[in-house]
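Q: Could you write out the predicted structure for this multi-component system? I'm mainly interested in how the pieces pack against one another.
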Amino acid sequence: MPVSVRKYDLVVLGATGYTGKLTAEHINEFLPDLVEKLKKLSPKRLPPSIEICVPMAENLNSLARKTRVIITLLGPYAKFGTPVMEACVKNGTHYLDTTGEIYWVGQMVRRFHEDAKAAGVILLSQIGAESGPYDLITFSAVSKLRTEASLKTKELIVSINESKLALSGGTLASFFNMYESIDQKTMTASLQPWALSPISGRKAPNAANTFGLRRDKTLGLLSASSPTERQDRALVHRSWALLDAGNLYGKNFFYNEYQKAGGVVGGVVAKIGTKLVGASLSSAILRNLIGKFSPAPGEGLDPKEEKNFNIEIFAVAVADEVGPSETRALSKLRYAGGTYHITAALLAQGAATILYESGLVERVGGGLLTPAVIGQPYIERLRGVGLSIDTVLL
Ligand SMILES: NC(=O)c1ccc[n+]([C@@H]2O[C@H](COP(=O)([O-])OP(=O)(O)OC[C@H]3O[C@@H](n4cnc5c(N)ncnc54)[C@H](OP(=O)(O)O)[C@@H]3O)[C@@H](O)[C@H]2O)c1
């Protein structure tokens, strides 16, 4: 069935889960056009409905055939994600997920990118708090340098100033599944800087000192303690490669991510803490213990409490210049809400951008793409729901 006349514009798979509910609520609150505008345009169109879909190929193909965009929250993705993506590619349905299971993303890139490109299907993976904001803030800072100073970027430095995390049971189950299903070698390979990128960029030395600290003249004291640094870097580097084979960002581009350090001691402690959490997750005994005291799949912090958290991320794009001058662009991303609320916003507004931004699909083509490839229209939509990215040239 042609994409324009499908029964559903948007389907949320896994809407009964913790993040799925938040996503459905976001759609209900912020995308009334999905219901109201369509009602006016086409009075016979069906109101939102619920379908029970056991995620097997046959059912997923049938669902994908009648849908324009699918958001899937069936996690762990390494267990349930592949047939959903396959059904979307086969049936010309755009797709979004919020996985943090980067080794699985690498497998999906290798398996589906070319087919999706040929079919003009947009696949967006890692659209969550974990990687989405970092890709978009990078795009914003790099674009400022390029458009207002005609300069390419040599380094993108991120400072996570605030991003309190209360893990849901579903996220923990996905972490546990990851540590149980792959060996350390596969995990390490999947986290390499250019692991998701079709071409490789430069090798960059570790910019932090032995204690994991770095002082930046714009961002202040930073600690190399972000638990998601390597996942985020791999996605941002994929954007680098997809956007004119690295020429849009600059041939010498490299991404580095840190947490803001209140002081030297705090920064070192944060670094040790991140290492300890990583080590505990690698141990089956400790995973069992953590599991006993953590929320079960489907559960998480009371969403009202999660909404009171805040996210603040700053990023500096450092120009690739010869000589002593160092032009910079500073981006500030802010959101009133926690990591699960921002994930819901990123997913719903990503889907809306694909559905409503005229000419987008033709402009970006298909493939396993990234938020930065969707670019400015996505950023504008997010601004409309309180996720702001403001950028200045320094
Ligand atoms: N990267 C990020 O920033 C980020 C942020 C948020 C979430 N996530 C990821 O998103 C995923 C979902 O997280 P969550 O906390 O929302 O998990 P959750 O609450 O456990 O929800 C999982 C959903 O998947 C459904 N499901 C699971 N197994 C199924 C099966 N065999 N058949 C049919 N449906 C099945 C569940 O349905 P039932 O209710 O029927 O069990 C539920 O709707 C996880 O992988 C998590 O890591 C990532």
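A: Regarding packing and overall arrangement: The mean pLDDT is 92.
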